[in-house]
Amino acid sequence: MDDNEIEIRRKAVEELKGMPAGPAIPLLIRAMEDTGWRVRKTAAMIIEDYPLVLCIEGLISLLYLSNNAGARNTAIEVLTKTGKEAIPYLIKAYGSRDADVRKSIVDIAGNIKDKKTMPLLLAALKDEDENIKASAVEALGYLDEPEVVDILIGVLKGGDLWTAFPAAAALGRTGSKQAVPALLDALSVRALREPVLNALGRLSDAETLDRVVRFLDDPSLSIQEEALLAIEMFYHNNIPSEGITASLKRVCGKDALDRLTRHLFSKRNEVKTTAILMLGLMQYCESIGKMLELYADEYLHNDMLRALMYMGQNNPKCLIPYFEGDNHDVRRFVISVAAKVASPVYYRLFRNMLTDSDGHIRAIAAIGLSRTGGGKAIKQLWSLLSDPFPDVQDAAVTALGSLKDGLKVEDLIKYLKDNNPYVRKNAALLIGRTGALSAINALGFALKDEDVSVRRAVVEALSNIKIEESSDLLTLALTDEKPEIRAAAALSLGNVAGRAALETLALLLKDPDDNVRVASARSLGVLNDKRAVSFLVVMLSDPNGFVVTSAMDSLSRIGGVEAREALKKMLSSDDKEIRRTAIKSLSPFDGIEDLLLPYLKDPDWATRIAALEALSSRRNEKVLSEVRDLLHSEDEHLVKKTIRELFDV
Question: How far is Cα of residue 614 from the mean position of the Cα atoms in its chain?
Answer without folding.
Answer: 21
